[in-house]
Every structure is written in structure tokens, then in C-alpha cells.
Give the backbone structure.
Amino acid sequence: MGAKICVCLKVVPRAEVQLRIEEATHRLDRSGASELNPADEYAIEEALSIAASLDAEVVAVSMVPLSGVETLRHALALGVDRVVAISDVSLAGADMVVTSRVLAKFLEREAPDVIVLGSQAMDGRGAMLGGAIGQHMDLPVMSGVRSARVEGGRLRATRLSADGEVVLETTMPCVVALSGSANVPRYPSFRDIVTSKRKDISVISAADLGLVPSESGPAGSRTHVIGIAPRPVRQADAEIFVGEDGAAAFLVGVLDRAGLT
Amino acid sequence: MTPAGRAAYPLLLSPFRIGTVELQNRFVFQPHFTALLADDSMPNDVLKAYFMERALGGAGLIVDGHMTVMVEGMMAPHYIRAWEEDFIPAYRMMTDEIHATGTKIFGQVTHAGHTSLTEPPQTLWAPTQMPEPSSPHTTRAMDLTDIRRTIRGFGEASRNVIQAGADGIEVKIAHDGLLRSFASPFFNHRTDGYGGSFEKRMRLPLEVLESIRVAIGPDHPIGIRLCLHEYTPFGYELDYGLRMAERFEQSGLVDYFNCDAGTFSSFWMEIPPAAIAQGFFRPLNRELKKVSSLPVVAFGRIKDADMAERILELGEADLIGMARALIADPDLPLKLMEGRPDQIRACIGCNDGCIHQVMQVKPIRCIQNPGAGQEQVYSERLLLRASQPRNVVVIGGGPAGLKVAEIARRRGHDVTLFERAPMLGGQVRLAARQPFHEEVAEVTAYLEASVQRLGVDVWLNAEASVDGLMDLRPDAIIVATGSQPDMPPHRRGATDPDAGAIARSRGLQVTNPVPGLDRDLVRSVDDVLAAPPAPATRVLVIDAHGHWEAAGTAEFLADQGCHVQVVTSRVEVGFGLEATNKVMFHQRARDKRIVLSPSVEVLAIEEAGVAVEDLLSGARRRIDGVDLVVPVYPRVSRDDLYFMLLDRLGEASDVYIARVGDASSPRLLQTILLEAQHVGMTL
Amino acid sequence: MSGADMSGSGSDTPLVFIEVRRGAATPGSLALLATARRLAGAAAAVVCGPDSEHVARTLPGYGADEVWFADQPTFDAELPGPIIDAVAGLIVARGFATVLLETSVAAVEIAASLSARFDAGVNWDLQDVEMRDGQMVGTRLALGDTVVIDVGWTGEPRLASFRLGVGEPVEQQVPGSVQRLEPSISSRALRTTIHERRDSTHEGAQLVDAAVIVAGGRGVRDAASLQLLEALASALGGMVAVSMPLVDRGWYPVSAQVGQTGQKVRPRLYIACGISGSLAHRVGMEKSGTIIAINSDPSASIFGLCDAGVVGDLHEVVPELTRLIRARRAAEASAAG
């Protein structure tokens, strides 16, 4: 059996789609056009480059509503060998605990050597999922990673620190959660795009993973949404300074008050 | 969630009252000539569809600028003969339909006076016999009978307009027409009761207002479209404009002011192109608002809803006038109400479709909105969901490919788009580098956002092949692969010099016969826009095309510090530019020391110079000291993929193959987007 | 399952995870001590790392009633594994029902791991928490910060992770006990080691990661003037971005473009110089933390969006601001040295 890298993906509404939360369910309306979470392209690229050094298979997995399964085809075009969608109505609205448990269940079966996750811009969801998956599977986790490679049977990862960079090393299997933009994702070739359009994406349910509703359904979630309200529009109550003389000092004051200096 | 619309634009979307008339929001579709009527001057379905499109889009008020008050006052036959009653029944049907949407409509009554759009013009009426300085045609000095007929004409026409269902009357004392010439010290030299002092110059407009009020009774508002600043060396300026406003307000005959500026002699300020900053005229609105207690409609290059909201917030005006912004996107108000401001298709201030057309008395059009002026055929409201979704593959992510993809996707087809560059936008990205031309990028910015939002499967950096396309099993392949400069292959630039080889080998394309285009000092326009030459380079641009491709590039190079000369065999450089843009380009070329050499034909490109013939004298000479020649001839299609597909599939194939945009025939953006919309609608 | 695994009765006092940067507690984590006091009238704190004892002793000054620190050699800010074990052990031993953290890279990993270990709910990117009818309710912004979402927890412990920079530290001296933890560390935590530390600049840094962005638009006079923005960005440890017109003029690469057709960024600080604030640009940056606008046009719509603004010539204001920031940095460096 050869080496294997798994990469966890998320399908998100395209940036051009106006986001909307359904009032009844408090869930994000996912009926619009979707795309691969842009940060996940870095995760795929990193997975492909680690895989190249190990001659490993790359398997992508995503917990995704059925309507978003086709979006995962992008991963096939980029060179992922196999894509698995975990798609189940009972998973709608799953919180982080449930999501990480479902993914961990799948990953335990696949038993990869490295699990790669992308970050999600500011909210750190990738690091969140990575940390939880590592805990579920009792694997070491490295997050905030900018680049990772295999060195002497161990995974070596670089990440930014307050003073520069730090290089971490750990045993495999392990979990790697990337920082925002770890590398330069490749463009798939026209040929790869065409080929990807004809590959299959396997779709499995929570039950296929042996999960029972108390683990994977709403009952498994440990957080819930109580209510949603429009945020008052950013008021035009900005402090405005007119003129050049003294403007810079004014701005330094603003930065000080915001804790940004 | 409730749409953020009203919360984000609380003033713009709030109701407003002008006299007795309640408007649903602050948007005013400004009066303008559309040339949509036929020679019979009767209201027709084309004009109705044009106004209904804006009414359905949510405009608060439409001001129809087509009402003339007497036969001698018609600028063109395509205005309504409002002094006669014949138009009332047909017009009434239109106003009823408009009212059913919640939108209100005012009629702007006008007398052409000393200005005209027809050639030769009608008898031009004026206070004093003298031509409008921009015109070779002089005028007839009006006698008291003419004046009395005019006053009566305004009254009768206004009464008819109200009977035809309009909610109010707007009197044009604006950039063209009789009433401003009476008010203007430059045009009015009379010594009778209608000239000689400020008060006397105001007399005709005031008597006209009185006549209208008597004719329509007290229940309907009357406003004035008022030119506040003539922007000519000889005309009046803002202080005089404000004085006029004060006088009109004192009369008690006016219910609102609609701001305006410019004259036929400064017509680029009437309908400012993109070279005039957005919101340029805000100080005019603001100053009027300071001296007047009446509602004020802001005007002039307001296209951004945020700017509009801010104008209201700062108290610069009460209503926002937009003409071109609502021509480009009739649904602008609706999109704000529905919390979709990101989906607005912005006016780019090109004036190519609107002003350029109507100044030639041709029906109004719009680059951004192929449906403008032809709503009955191309309104986006007419897009039908495809009965059977088809697998549509578009090759090329320039404006043509994007537009086909957008329309096809909106109709429910599965659309995949391949673009060989790492970004969408095609030539528009290059065009937007030209000075004062940035806004053209909003054409493709809108389309890019649309195709992404709609879920077109977009792939960048992907060069399509025939084999691969066949593997996709498409129902339709749209080839929108664009064009390239007409230059010898190896001088075209880095990317695929052989493009067009198939067409050339079949005699479907020829190479440019001008000798010397293969020399090292020649670079294509695409090339210099992407990678400008060093400052102080001496550049000769050949303008055989007449549009921005040459003129804008020349200015771009001048801004880079190059010494630029432009030659054209035609009588002026930029001969195909729209008039407001052309005037302003020539002004800037002078300021930037660009040498314009019209009536000069390039015979051959030589070492460090070009051989030319001076067409006026017939003399042949050489232009020396040239480091770089940038030839702008009509471009040639990049259509190899199209021919390869035809060869592969043969005539009998079920796969629909079409070429659109420059790949079909290199043209200006307006034609291309219309063609692309048509293809998208018929897939 | 939740809570039932834990020994002892649940403590009402929230436990605050204190982060250390450059030898001091971060303002964001100190602010959480005040949050804890507001919730429960008391605060506990845990801090880990080689110099954590020193930091621990400062915490009663910000309202921490009980403080634990772990300063054994296995603790390093770069290695969350042992920290997770220490905090988890403390939660079990003392029965903490609520844990408050910042949303930093390390804290996220800690919160996630605790969540999986205790089958506990974690809400992150929070703005605030409060008690409502005896229940703890968190608020966070979503959908580009256009909506406020109230979130709750099912079971205990409740893990609450806060958006960076939402709160202010509050100085309030309490008696406060300070104790060293002697946690047992799992083998998993010890599998990751530090191979190398490098002091370096952020080569190849990307706009989307930048905490500070100085952006230039149409109002920037010429390509050379972008150096003014670069200098300011460098002084603030940030990056330069541009709006589309400057990319189209060829002054800056498209990778630096913010807006509808460029990158969508959310730095803590966004300084818009000569940017009018067109919608196309706004969609790329309006989610930024603090937005500062410098524009000579008082009616530019960016002034309706920013937190603070200067109506003035950026070519004068930016260099002066750079000078002041540099002077400040120099003063800090000499004070620290």
C-alpha cells in the first residue's frame, strides 16, 4: 500500500453571491453559485506537493450539501486522485464538533499519512477543524503552516511566528492546517479540466460511515444559533480631520485608541 | 434577512413630495432626446417600452424631454407636437401604464429657439439675430407676435401634456432652447420689454411660467430645468444662474429646480463624458440648494449610489437626477431596494451609444445595455428560460464571451467558460489603461461578477483544444477568442504569432500591405499598452481606425513621457470618436503637446522614420527621428479555433458553433455586446 | 456526555487563557479577564510558557482571582500540544464550565482540541458574551459583518473564542492567588518539536494574510508616489494594496489589487489613500477592522465607510504619518533596550 495524503475541503458561496441567512433555520442559504473555499486551493497544492515527494495518492473529502458536490470537481482538475463527498441532509447545520467527528470518522478509514486543511481567511475554521480532528484521531497537529515537506520520515512545517519563522517537526501520520496562502496554487490545464468533467465523485452518507444520528445529527451539535439580526449599518460617525497640518498626529491618535500602533 | 437596501440607502430610497406629487424615491430619470419617435412625432411603443423599462426598474420620476410647444420650436421631427391634441390618447395609454408601476411622469416643454439637431435646421428663433457660436446658421429675431405665440404655445402644450396624464410640467431653460437665450446677456441684446436689463431678460420665461400655470391650474407642479453655468468664455456663470433661480423662486410660479449646465458651445459639459470627474457638478447643486427653499434635483455624472446617498445626506440636493445611469441599468433603483447594489451595471460615461446616436438623430443606444432603446427586442425582462438546458462552452473571457455566458446562464443553460489568460476581461483591460478611460473596465467588471454569481464554470489560464472540446460533449460552442493588431505575425507580440494562419491560408484574411510593418521599430498597440516604452521615446502613432485605440494610446504614451505624433489620412485624428470625447481629446492633446497630423497618408515605414504623402498638397516627404511606430489599423480576428472546429465537425454536426465578438469581426464594444446578447438569447 | 466526564462540581468562574507575546500578556487576552468578571463576578486565568510566572503575577492587576501558570521546559508558545494538556487537566481538576480565549492561531488549535476532547461546544470569532436568563449568549458578526448572530452552547464546558482586538484590558487589582501547574503531558503532545527558529522578514507574504494594509487609489499622483505608501506599510509592518485603476495603469501587479475583481481582504487596519470608495473597491475591503481614509475630496464615499478620515493631500499626510510611526517605534525600541 502506497502513501496517502488526505485534504479536507469546504464548498462556499462564490464571493459574488450575496450571502443570506435563512430566517427559519438560521442557516446560510447555499442555493446560489458555489466555489471551493479559495484557501483550500492552497491546501490542495500543498497536498499535491507533499504527495509528489512520497509518490502518494491524494484523496479529497468534503462535507457538503448535494447541490455543492459538483463544485468539488475543481479538485479533480487540479490533480486530486479521488474526491469523496459526505452529503447527508442530517448534517445540515452541523457545528464544528459534529463536522470534525464526521471527517475524523472518514479519515480513520482512509488512514492517510498526512491530513491537510486550508485556513478560512480570518475565522480560523481550518485550524479549528484541524485541531479537533487531531484530537479525535490522537494525531499531532501543526497549524498556521506556510509550507510543509517530508524529511526523513517526519513532517517538517514552517510557520510564521512573532519574530520570524519557526520550523516544526512531527511524526506521521499528522494533521497540517495551513495559514492563508501557503503557496502558489497551480492552474489546471485544459486537458485536466476536461478529464475532471468525466470523473466520478463518490457520495456517501453519515450512515455509510457508521455514524448514528445522535453523533452526526443536530443532537450532536454543542452550539446553536439563538437569533440573527441585521447589524446596524456602519454609521457615518467617522472622525474626520480636515487639512494636512496635524493630520498625521490625529491619525496616530486614532491608531493608538484602536490599539494598532 | 430583510434586505439591507433601505437601511443602506435610507434617503435615496425614501419618498419625496413635489407639490401635490408623491414620489416613491429620489431617482429622477432626467429628460433627454431619444430619437425613438418616428417622423410622425407621435408617441409610439418604442418610447413607451423605453420609459416602462425605467418605471419597472423603480425610478421615482421620469421627466420626458420630448414635448415641443410650437412647430417652429422643434429641434427634430422626433419630438412630440405637444401644442396639438393628436398625441394625447396614445400618450395617455403610456402614462397610465407608468402610473400603474408607482412611477410618476412629468413632461418637459421646450422650444428649440436658436439650436437644432436637424441639418439644415428649422428657422432658428432668438431674441437677437446672431448664430449660436458653435453653429454657422444665424437666427430670426423674434417680434412681439412671435413672442405672444410662444407664450401661448407653452401654455397650450402644457395643458395637453397634463391631459395626456403627466403629473407635472418642467420648463426647459437649459443648455439648449429659446428660453435660456432670452435669459442670457450674451444672446439677448433687445431694447424692448424683453431685454436690456436682468428683469427684462427674465420677462419671457416668467410670462411662459404664468401662461403654463393658468393653463394647467393649481394642482400640478411646475419645475424648471435651469442652466446654472454656461461654461463658455462669453456666457454667464454660476452667480448669474443663481440670480435667475432666485428671481424664478420669487415669482411663486415654480415648485422645483432641476439643475443643468453647459450650452451648445460647451456641449461636452451638457452631457459630460468620463473625462469629467463623477460628481463634478455637485458644487452647482449645492450652491443652488443654499439659496433656494425649493426642492433641487442634482445632476451630472452621478452614477454611484453611494455618492447619490451622500449628496442627499449632505443636503446638496433633494432628488438625484440620472439619465445615463438609468439607461445603462434601468433596474438600478430596484437593485438598491432589493439589497443588490453589487449587481448594478454602471454607466461608463463613454457617450458612444447615447449622445453619439441622438446627436445624429439616430435612436438612442447604450454600450452597457444592449436593450436600451430597443426594449421590445432586447430587454432583459424578455429573457426566457431555455426549454431545455444545454451544455454551452464559451471560449474566451473578453466582453463577448462573458456576455454570451451571462445571458445563456441566466436562461438556465450549463455554461463553461475557458480563458487562456490568467484573468478575464480581454482587450478591455488594455483599453482601461488609457487616460480617462478607466471606467470602460466596468463593462467587464460587471460581466465578471455576473458570470461568477450566476454559477458559470469559469476556468482561467486554460487554452482550449479541439479534442478537449469534443470530449466535453457540448451542445454549443461559442468561439469568442478576440482579435489582434493587423501586423506581420512576428511583430504582433509575444503570444501566438501564428493566430489567423488558417484564415490567411484560405484567403479569408490578408496581411496588412503597408511596407515596413515588419521593422524592429514597429510595436503593436496591445504591446505598448501592456509594456510602455521608455520616457522620451519618439513615437509615431498611425490612426487608421479613428477611435480610442489610436487616440487613447497616443495620450497614454504622452503621459508616459514619450514625444508623440499621430498621423491619419482622414481630416482629423480620432475621426470616429463621439463628439464630446473628441473635443476633450483634442483639448488634452494640445495641452500634452501631442502633434496631430491629419490628412497625412503613411506610405511606408522606414529606418527611423516613415514615408508619407500630404494629402492636401500631394507632396511626398519623410517624417524623421522616429524611434517607435505604433500602427492602428482595423484589427484581425483570432479565429483559428473556429475553423478547426468547423473542419472537425463538418456541416452536418448537431453541435452549434458560433463565433462572436472580435473573433467574428473586430468592432467597437457596443456592437459586440449587442451581438453577444443576441447569441445568448437565441441559444 | 458533556460535563459528565468531569470530576467535581462545575465552577461558575470562567477560565481565561492568557496569551503571551514578547514577554507580556496580550491586550486581547487581558481584556477577557474583565469579560469574565462581568459574566460571573470572578475570573480565573491560565498562562503557559517559559516566562509565564512573571506574566502570571501581573494578572491579579487585571482582575484575575486565581492564576495558574506552567513554565516547564516543554512549554513553548509555538507548541500548543503541551498547553492543551495543561489546560484540559485544569478544566477537569477544577471543573471549569466556561473557557474564554482569543482567536489566535495557537488559541484556535487549543479551543478546537478541547472541544473534541470534551465534546464541548466552541463558538469563535465572538464580539462579546453576556448572561441572558441564566444562559450564556455570545454575539458574533457574520456575512461580511452585516448581521449579528446570537449563539449559545449546549452542555459544558463552554468554549468561547473572541475576535482579535475586540476588547480593552481593564486594570482592577484583586488579591489573586498564583500557582504553578504540574500537568501531565500526553505522548501526542510531545511528538511535535521545534526544529529551527528563524528571525526573518515575511518574504512572499500575501495580501490576504496582512494584518495591516496601506492601499492606494486613483488619487495617487504617479507611480513613484506609491513609494510613500510602501514606506508607511513598512513602518506599520503591513503591505501595500491598490485599487483597480492603478493596476490598469500598470503601476502595481494585479496580485496587489483589492476589490471586486481583485482580492478580498480583512486586515485589522486598512488605510485607504486616494481611494474614492467605489462599490467595486468596497466589496474587497469593507470587512476590515479599522478603516482609515485619506482623500482630498471631502465628498468621497469612502468617508461614509471609514472609522476615521483625513480630508487632505495624501502626498503630504502619508510621509508625515510614516515619520511619526517610525519615531514611535524608535522610541519603543530604545525604551525596551
Notes: The mean pLDDT of chain A is 87.
